[in-house]
């Protein structure tokens, strides 16, 4: 568990919300409870960490609607849905929209904590990935357009000779660019460079490079 | 006249024989004048002769007067004799031994005998066998009875061995009085031909007999009462009913069959006595007594009641109908004394309606089974919401319990005593949540388990509130608001709470589903109540509109296909595959079994609007 991670509970049923909050707090989690989707929307921030435990059935705005609203904002905390009776269409839709879990009440403490842990893990990984992407993107920004071109072609598996032919420059120059790229991207190997390029989608790379 | 006048004077005097009265008078005058003129001749002999002749003429004249007087008397006598003989009524005089002393022609004709041969004939020989005693008793009563006492007329049958022409009398009535004849008192009787009377009587009796035979052949129990409520006639079925051994005295109608027995009084008496019997019996009997009295007094044209009655082969249901009976037009009815002045009264008919009643009971059972099935079905439809509803408190309770456990198993064992105080609210909260779950289970169980209809007094508003509680989650899950506008505070009705709840569950859920399926923007089901009076319809027994309560369930859904209203209530034409639709015909059934009605508003442009109306319980009937 990360110090910053928090369990955000959105449930209109006071007893449900209160008991869950109490139990999770006793187990050492940071917990915030919200009585409605609107209340949560009003206070959530992009740097929230942790996971969301959402009641499926709520007046005014249902769990699914909240999920959609958050998605539109680009808010990407993992969501665990809680439902009294999860029928197949609702479940499918929730998962399609990116819910990490769908639990049916009553939920046992162990199952709940297990899923919260898993959600936290996903959250952590997403943060890490995001951080990595950010790093790659920062490093990419330092590359010259030529270096970018070389990197793209190299990660596509082309040899120096082929790149030279493609870019109509000498293989020697390619080699220099390549070394520069490896240095700037802090990549130890071509494989590592490939991973970085995969994290940073080619479109973005291209726009940053060619444009 | 002159010939007749001469006849009586025949042989009275040859000299003056041929002379008429004026002739004689003239002769007398002549003789007197001759006597006066004879002054000149003192002939004593001639004087004497003249005088004698004068006397003779005078005597003759007197004789003639007498003859005239006698003639008048004779004519008069003949006249009265004819009056006697030819009177339209027969007359006869009997001596104390019943022999005919005198008899007029009419009487002789009645007897079909020659009058001349009847003198001295003992009258009994002319009567049918067996009538002699009665006749002689009659005669001796007349002859030997006290003065001034009228002896009852005697009716006797005539002997019928001898063939007689058709219109000959068959029976006579003798109206007799005492008369003093040469040998002491005699019996003077007027003889009236009562054959026609007898025939009428017989045919009347035959008609009556036929009527009774028809009534006796009826399976229904028929009792005819006079205006005072006393028995005039009871048919065989009633007599069997009356003679049926009373295993228990239950059965609300008084039962006896003797003519003259006061039915009404017996009913009233029974109503006042019927203590230990079935409680309904007393009120029933009183109601019957009042109803029958009302018919007898013509305050009502008809009275109908149904009651249970113990018989040899078990419980039977009887339907009693009392209708007025008017003897008007029945002029020949002789027993005016019996039927009071007017001959009015009432007929009471009891029909065994056990079969119908049983069929009704079977129908009711079938309806209950169907209603129960519909409830099970409804719960199936509601199951999703129900599971959700139950899961909530159970989960909360589990978390509270778990939290308490965590508190106890807390890492630091030394902290336990201090933290024990924190346990209490957790456990209390867990307990409250478990209770909440338990209450849901209980409501549901009530709704499902209930199989037998129990009519009871119930207050409408709390019933509606409980219903909203039961399906509130079904609505809230679909984000439909339930709104209750009461116009029926403090109103009570008689009914089965679960069945009425079912009707409302059905109507409200239908509205919620309609709104949800059509994805309406406005999502609300309104339950409104108001008190009102039933419409007066001719077939209804209630005279004026009786107090009712109307419940209206309207939704903001897309409305109904009004053309399909008929199919709406058809058990086999359910619109919904999910099954709540079949609740509608059953709901209508339930409402009608409660004496109300359920209908849908034809103007359903703004959502569907269902109404049902139920009769109110009597005030104070709680």
UniProtKB/TrEMBL annotation, chain A:
A single BP term in Gene Ontology? phosphorelay signal transduction system
4-aspartylphosphate (modified residue): where? Answer: 55
**One example GO MF annotation:** DNA binding
> Its domain of life?
Bacteria
Q: Which UniProt keywords apply?
A: DNA-binding, Phosphoprotein, Transcription, Transcription regulation, Two-component regulatory system
HTH luxR-type domain mapped to chain residues: 136-201
Q: Which Pfam families match?
A: GerE (PF00196), Response_reg (PF00072)
Query: PROSITE patterns under this entry?
Result: HTH_LUXR_2 (PS50043), RESPONSE_REGULATORY (PS50110)
Domain named Response regulatory is located at 6-120
Output this protein's name: DNA-binding response regulator
The protein's organism comes out as: Lamprobacter modestohalophilus
Automatic annotation (TrEMBL), chain B:
- Mind telling me which residue stretches traverse the membrane in this protein? none
Q: Reply yes or no: does the keyword Nucleotide-binding apply.
A: yes
Q: Which UniProt keywords apply?
A: ATP-binding, Kinase, Nucleotide-binding, Transferase, Two-component regulatory system
Q: Which GO terms describe its molecular function?
A: ATP binding; protein histidine kinase activity
**InterPro entries per the UniProt record, alphabetical:** HATPase_C_sf, HATPase_dom, His_kinase_dom, PAS, PAS-like_dom_sf, PAS_4, Sig_transdc_His_kin-like_C
Q: What chemistry does it catalyse, as a reaction equation? A: ATP + protein L-histidine = ADP + protein N-phospho-L-histidine
Q: What class of enzyme is it?
A: transferase
- One Pfam family name from the record? PAS_8
Q: What is this protein called?
A: histidine kinase
Taking every annotated instance into account, which residue ranges of this chain make up the domain Histidine kinase? 385-618
Q: What is its EC number?
A: 2.7.13.3
What processes does the entry annotate via GO biological process terms?
A: phosphorelay signal transduction system
